[in-house]
Amino acid sequence: MLENKVALVTGASRGIGRAIAEKLAKNGAAVIVNYNGSKEKADAVVKEIESFGGKAEAYQCSVADFAKTEEMMKYVIEKYGRIDILVNNAGITRDGLLMKMSEEDFDAVIATNLKGAFNCMRHVARQMIKQKGGRIINISSISGVMGNAGQMNYAASKAGVIGMTKTAARELASRGITVNAIAPGFITTDMTEVLSDSVKEGILAQIPMKTMGEPADIAETAAFLASDGAKYITGQVINVNGGMAM
After folding, report:
1. Which of 66, 88, 92, 207 has the fewest CB within 10 Å, making it most exposed?
2. Distance, CA of 221 to CA of 24 (rounded, Å)
3. Could you give the 3-state DSSP secondary structure of residue 180?
4. Catalytic hit among 75, 80, 154, 232
């Protein structure tokens, strides 16, 4: 389905990013597994992809760094000749209530989650225009759709991603490039595993389906948006949250 396509997935060493990288590879794409922190985890993703006959390699880069992100895109283009799919998944949290949130925690989240997505889109757009096609998939969050107490920085960054998605979609649509966002609800990942049982119970009470999602649920949606089946879909926010944001 994605044979001869080249995909770059940011923050792909674990969780949702890993699931997306593996799904795109299973569908035939060569995948660049971007990571910032753990080379060991990124290499494990590459090894897993290679174990089922897929193509992948790891690339270290903080997406918050404008120049380093440009270098990453240039590397991929020089080696593979193209970038067909960009998934902006890299994200961090620095939770805290408004009255206690530090400037450093606010800035760090905005730099990675919002500016990081901008950096990647900014540097991939020219190549996709040259190719006369491409798929950009931005990972937002239910927090960016509904807001969430204790996550002003995270919610702001993810709401910003939605605004950038719609703007980029308008700017790039005539060039054959689609830009969409996925807004996951509460997904079973490292980020949610650290929550207390009481917090998890409170979350489940708000979800009509009464269960958290899995990384695979987001990966399936991303794979669809990357496919030819989604060629006429752009500027959309796909909520994958068990009905939480109706």
Report:
1. 66
2. 11
3. strand
4. 154
